[in-house]
Amino acid sequence: MATTHGGEILIILILALLSKAISIRARHQIINDPSSSINPSFCFSWRLGVEVNNVLPWSTVPIHCLQYIEDYMIHGQYEQDLELIMEQALKYMNGIVLYGDGMDAWVIDVDDTCLSNVFYYKSKRYGCDPYDPVAFRAWALKGWCTAIPSVLDLFNKLIDQGFKLILLTGRDQDIFHQVTIQNLHNQGFIGYERLIMRSAAYKGESGVKYKSSMRKQLEDEGYRIWGNLGDQWSDLQGYSSGNRTFKLPNPMYFVP
Amino acid sequence: MATTHGGEILIILILALLSKAISIRARHQIINDPSSSINPSFCFSWRLGVEVNNVLPWSTVPIHCLQYIEDYMIHGQYEQDLELIMEQALKYMNGIVLYGDGMDAWVIDVDDTCLSNVFYYKSKRYGCDPYDPVAFRAWALKGWCTAIPSVLDLFNKLIDQGFKLILLTGRDQDIFHQVTIQNLHNQGFIGYERLIMRSAAYKGESGVKYKSSMRKQLEDEGYRIWGNLGDQWSDLQGYSSGNRTFKLPNPMYFVP
């Protein structure tokens, strides 16, 4: 009987382990497995389509990709993707011979390039909820955005190397001027050359047109735009885009 | 004793199941899990970096991403990614009001856009081995490339809709002219307007420059390039790129 009881206990133990292994695997499948019945491979394809700019325009993340996008944003892969891009940018930077006349520039976007809005977007189900200008304005006015560490690291290295950094944001100057300066400062973005914000003249203009105009003005002033960093294709497309562009990931929202 | 024996058999059965579940999970982790110890999350980031054109130029797939890229290419995700892109292209196509003067065009690349070289690249470890012009030439001269089904489907729908399809390839005209025409035909690519191949005048020219020149000539002839499909950024960048571009995935090789 002792053997039988021991066998039963062992069976229960093994069943518990098996159940755990299967549940871990099941959760894993939901997030990562193309063959899973809820078809997250669609979400893989959707995110790639968004990042490569094949899917456009888009207003919200497909609701069945919420779990996948949340997992992507907060469980390390987003940071890992950013780090690889920053390594590429650094490698490119190290190969540039500067003119050294104070006109060697990089253009860098602010939201979700320097400063992260992931905390805010968590409350908007990582982009599954539609864009909410009132709530976003209230969030941005708090000045609580956090630095994206790998971008801050590149930012500092670019300054050390002698580049002039131009921060170019679609944020409305009348509303966000002071808070943006403070938020950048309290997150360590110190020593940039200029912060360009959207003036009344460009209100309602698309990101591509507004940012192209601003970059063209920089070139007209004599700046050479060596690099251009942004999480939206509208940061990088249009004209005067810069000698090389770097698209940072952002599967949460789309700015035309 | 019967109970004890039954218990032992059950234990063995459960152990076998557990072992299977764990081995499936382990294989799964190697391919898909960012937290896995062999760090495939780097390969995720690398592939995204390549597809988004942040990583450039690059000559070979990192060797420790071989398993990941093989899995991506042959276990369904590549096809799924292509299908989503073709759906986007179709949606865009359906919204176009044609001029109907015979000058509404799409430009489409050939290798790994219409015709797949995955079978060849399998022998080159999906791009982990360096580019081998002699072997690729021998492969392409066989005319054994297979149609990419979702692209062929779009191809046919574009023709049905009344668009003129211009196939624009970097393949050398002197070497591959006849075999390319035959390979396209035997794979069902029938009814296109023109096949433009690289003439002696453009030998050694970068893909961006050669393809931009060809597209500019098409525009000079009066064609409106509504869409432009290619697996390389050099198919889509430069000038006269078309009203909308679609980047097809290709993590196996890079053409400047």
Automatic annotation (TrEMBL), chains A, B:
Per UniProt, the keywords (alphabetical) are: Glycoprotein, Signal, Storage protein
Annotated GO molecular function terms are: acid phosphatase activity; nutrient reservoir activity
What's the domain of life for this entry?
Eukaryota
Q: Which InterPro entries match?
A: Acid_phosphat_B-like, Acid_phosphatase_pln, APS1/VSP, HAD-like_sf, HAD_sf
Q: Name one Pfam family in it.
A: Acid_phosphat_B
Please verify whether the record's keywords include DNA-binding. no
Q: Any signal peptide, and if so, which residues?
A: 1-21
Gene3D superfamilies given in the database record: HAD superfamily/HAD-like
Q: Which SUPFAM superfamilies match?
A: HAD-like
Protein task: May function as somatic storage protein during early seedling development.
NCBIfam families on file: plant-AP
Q: Which family does it belong to?
A: Belongs to the APS1/VSP family.
Q: What is this protein called?
A: Acid phosphatase 1
